[in-house]
Amino acid sequence: MRATARTDTRQPEYINCPVERQLIADQNDLFRRAWPLAPMLGRFKMASDIAARSGEFQLACLEAVRHYDNFTLDTDLQGTHRTGAFKVEGETVCFEISLLDETYKNRSAAPADLGKTRRVLTIYSPQDL
Asked: 66-82 burial by CB neighbour count: b if 16+ within 10 A, else e?
């Protein structure tokens, strides 16, 4: 896992089918919960402000992401479980899952297809935006 600046991960407008949204939500949940056991599903990274914190803080963030289940209309507008926010040591921390192509360079054209989509989960603080 490396420190990095956030990339452009706007929600693709083409995920408009409720069945596809639910499938993507299930895949995103699996990805979050499987870390670190399933690196083939994608990558985790931390923004520089989180990476600069103690190892204990970083581990608490990772555990909070793995167990996160507070998806609401405020944090999960499309219902795909791509974003969330929580508190660690009294500080707000956020995560976002990008759905990218196999090269990790562009948005996936088929976000529900595990064979064509790679996930990158970024953990960051709101101040890092």
From this structure: eebeebeeebbebebbb
The tens digit of pLDDT for each residue in 79-91 reads 999 999 999 999 9
Q: For residue 102, how far is the Cα from the chain centroid?
A: 16
| For the chain, percent of residues with pLDDT exceeding 70 | 85
List, edge to edge, every strand of the sheet that includes 42-47: 3-4, 42-47, 118-124, 91-100, 83-88
HSE toward the beta carbon, residue 30, CA cutoff 13 A: 15
pLDDT at 101 over 70: yes
Residue with tokens 């953990």: 123
Evaluate whether 29 touches 56 at the Cβ level (below 8 Å): no
The pair of three-digit structure tokens given for residue 129, joined into one six-digit string: 């935006």
For the chain, the average pLDDT equals 86
